[in-house]
Amino acid sequence: MIFGLRVGIRVSAPEFLDSLVSCFPLGWKPAPPAMAERIYSVIGRGVAGPQKPGRRFNFLFVNAQQLVRTPNWEELCEALESDLDFYVARTTRTWLFVHAGVVGWKGRAVVIPGRSHSGKTTLVQALLETGATYYSDEFAVFDQEGRVHAFPRALSVRSNATATRIPAAQLGAQTGSISLPVGLVILTRYKPGVRLWPKVLSVGEGMLGLLQNTLAARRYPELAFTILERAICQAQVLGGTRGEALETARLIVRRLEQA
Q1: Kind of pairing between the strands at 108-113 and 182-190
Q2: CA angle, 167 as apex, 243 and 252 as ends, to 5°?
Q3: CA–CA separation, 210 and 219 (whole Å)
Q4: Grouped pLDDT means (10 residues each) for the chain, 259 residues
Q5: How many CB atoms lie within 10 A of CB 185?
Q6: What's the CA gap between 185 and 163, in Å, rounded?
Q7: pLDDT of residue 177
Q8: CB-based contacts of 95: which residues, under 8 Å, 6+ apart?
Q9: What do you get for the CA distance between the two ends of the chain, in Å?
Q10: Residue 55: its pLDDT value, please?
Q11: pLDDT on residue 45
């Protein structure tokens, strides 16, 4: 059971399970056998199996559709993790997933909504270097009361055209273990050479920025509006094009300290 959804996994060899289960998001629980809404099937040779005819590749299926065919076990695990995350984010009706980076600062969550390549990971990393607590690099996960929960995948740090997965602990950061109310929403995008930032925005603008990055907003609009309204009602909202991440992180921290 993952965020209220029944997900099944089948493997061609029992030794595959440990590394595959590590791809599940935090908070998953085993459930009695039932009709799963989504079934992943893994067939192959695992991490370093023998090169046998017909078993040179690992295969990942989602229900009856092939998702991945690769000799690289880590690539298969990353594909499983990514597909499972987006399935849960789009489908769950008991939680709300917003595409965002999240850190904690003195009992409040800082939420940075944005799509891939918007610079949110770089800003999250810079905030961790200033002493923030890590919550997520990919999704802000809200409960029914509008509080943010940790979704601590390894950070996907890009350098040129490649991305490296770096655990928060490797950056010297702690990972959050309790839910937090939202203290600050940051709507920003990186532009080289920019120094003027931030601009104070309205709660309505913050709500719109979160909705634009909410995966289930069109499928469950009432749920999205209700949860985000509760989440943002006491939060500050800042926006504008930002410059370098570390300089921006220091500005954010000063703002939080003043608040």
Answers
A1: parallel
A2: 30
A3: 15
A4: 92 91 88 84 74 72 94 93 95 96 96 84 93 95 97 82 82 93 92 79 95 95 96 93 88 85
A5: 28
A6: 26
A7: 92
A8: 3, 4, 141, 142, 143, 149
A9: 39
A10: 61
A11: 76
The answer to whether residues 128 and 171 touch, using CB atoms and an 8 Å cutoff, is yes
SS3 (DSSP) at 110 = strand
Cα 146 to Cα 252: distance, rounded to the nearest angstrom: 22
Distance CA 112, CA 124 (A): 8
- Return d(Cα 155, Cα 121) in angstroms, integer: 7
> CB of 185 within 8 A of CB of 236?
yes
Peptide bond into 30 cis (omega under 30): no
User: Count of CB atoms within 10 A of residue 69's CB?
Assistant: 14
CB contact set of 258 (below 8 Å; sequence gap of 6+): none
Determine the Cα–Cα distance for residues 3 and 204; give it in Å rounded to an integer. 28
Residue 7 pairs in a beta bridge with 38
Three-state secondary structure call for residue 129: helix
- How many angstroms separate the CA atoms of 89 and 46, rounded? 28
Place of tokens 């532009």: 191
E strand or H helix at 188: strand 182-190
Q: Return phi, psi of residue 221, to 5°.
A: -65, -40
In the block, which residue shows the tokens 């965002």?
A: 100
> Could you tell me the pTM of the whole model?
0.90
CA distances in angstroms from 205 to 90, 166, 185, listed in the order given: 23, 32, 10
Residue 95: is it exposed, middle or buried by C-beta count within 10 angstroms (0-12/13-18/19+)?
buried
